[in-house]
Design a protein that fits this description.
three-stranded antiparallel beta sheet; DNA binding; mainly alpha; Multidrug-efflux Transporter Regulator, Chain: A, Domain 2; HTH_17; 2 domains; SinI_DNA-bd; elongated
Length: 102
């Protein structure tokens, strides 16, 4: 009997081009079939991983992964995360103007 070589989490991560944590999450949710060896180590069948990769590629080609973010939202996020630095810079600039003019 020939035994099929089972893939490790790292090997599956490389094949699917995702992180190892994402592989474990997919296995826990049942999205990809996984097998436990010794009740601890996750292993995967190569043909099942190839099927999953092919099915996700075909669905990804139909749907655009990137959503374009409107310019207004980008500007809003910029000021939300940098407002302290902008206000501090303006305050320091005004102090310098007052000091050197006065």
């Amino acid at each position: 009997m020939s035994q099929e070589k089972l893939l490790t989490v790292r090997e599956v991560a490389i094949i699917l081009n995702i992180s190892e944590k994402e592989v474990v999450d997919l296995a826990q949710t049942g999205t990809i079939p996984a097998y436990k060896v010794g009740g601890v180590f996750l292993r995967f069948k190569k043909d099942q991983i190839q099927e999953y990769r092919n099915s996700t590629r075909s669905s990804l080609s139909k749907v655009s992964l990137r959503k374009s973010t409107p310019l207004r939202e980008k500007i809003s996020d910029f000021f939300y995360f940098n407002d302290f630095y902008i206000l501090s810079g303006l305050f320091i600039f005004l102090l310098l103007v007052v000091i050197f003019r006065g």
